[in-house]
């Protein structure tokens, strides 16, 4: 479980002084090198040389640690299914035509034992909706759809997404991405599809890429108006997709953008967390701290008591219009996230991280796309319906709102995470994300317009 931050600005724009106090402190600090050079020129030159060498070393380290973009082989751009043993070409997320209401993307690496349980729960739930002619939101509060649609003109993408949410579920797909497994995971998935008469599209990656790479590959070749990725261990109750769907229906923008994150933050004091080893809990809290420091560092003004600060614009007697801010996401790492197709088109093609920490980059990219849209057209962003309550509180006016929704989760044995080595890799990937977007080596996504 992690603590994501409102770090879209780190991707979308520069990080200059945020208040008069910050500007004053920044001006004082920037004057120190000039004074040092005036009185001690040799010391100043020595420090500049050391700083240049350290900066160059750090830059080279970032370049070395940055993952290389992997290209897909011909076999990885095809799938097999119970209905077709011959490889068929995969579709593209960037295609305009949606063919199913929901795509469920399941990344799997050596999941022969755990996968059938997850697939069974998934299929049983989705088939029950289809059999009983219920929608993904299970027909709750249909009036919301009409109110939201009448609040302003909706783009056709938003209409398609809303239809997928509120119409009885008729079409869905399961995309199983076998991430270089060696235990016959793909065979288990195909056998499950044959036994249950379900279309399971199996994509096999030649080499293990990591969870992030597998999820990206599956989403980029999905067909749904809605795209859910879910872990193969079945730790999250699949029926909670309806909870995520209801939240997404409330925050859906007129351009069809929204993202809902399953969260285990409410379980932080439960037995499932408290009774884990002290090392695992220590690493979890250290991850929270590092994530906050790297992606949402405190400013000087934020460290000074409020009564010493001056109000923005009071020097000129003017008032600034503040853009809406995405509330903090408390759990970034839960493997249960729901995207609209327009949102998936923005964030997944722009993502880079293949490892465990890829969720953080997706949230950053979504926030960046939202910030860029609001900066370009701040007065024109209409508010969405239902933002004022529960998990949707504080999302009013965002161009790409991200809701965090509590889900039912339980510990499942057989985790593929190597506690120490993967924790170090995750910490390094956080630095890589922050550095590459800060240095503009990685480009932000298009605005969510």
UniProtKB/TrEMBL annotation:
Biological processes annotated in GO: protein N-linked glycosylation
Enzyme class: transferase
InterPro entries given in the database record: DPG_synthase, Glyco_trans_2-like, Nucleotide-diphossugar_trans
Pfam hit, one: Glycos_transf_2
EC numbers on record: 2.4.1.117
GO CC terms of this entry: endoplasmic reticulum membrane
Keywords associated with the record: Endoplasmic reticulum, Glycosyltransferase, Membrane, Signal-anchor, Transferase, Transmembrane, Transmembrane helix
Catalytic activity as recorded in UniProt: a di-trans,poly-cis-dolichyl phosphate + UDP-alpha-D-glucose = a di-trans,poly-cis-dolichyl beta-D-glucosyl phosphate + UDP
Stored CDD domains: DPG_synthase (cd04188)
Membrane topology of this protein: Single-pass membrane protein
Residue span, Glycosyltransferase 2-like domain: 159-244
Keyword Amino-acid biosynthesis among record annotations: no
Compartment(s) of residence: Endoplasmic reticulum membrane
One annotated GO molecular function: dolichyl-phosphate beta-glucosyltransferase activity
Family: Belongs to the glycosyltransferase 2 family.
The name this protein goes by in its record: dolichyl-phosphate beta-glucosyltransferase
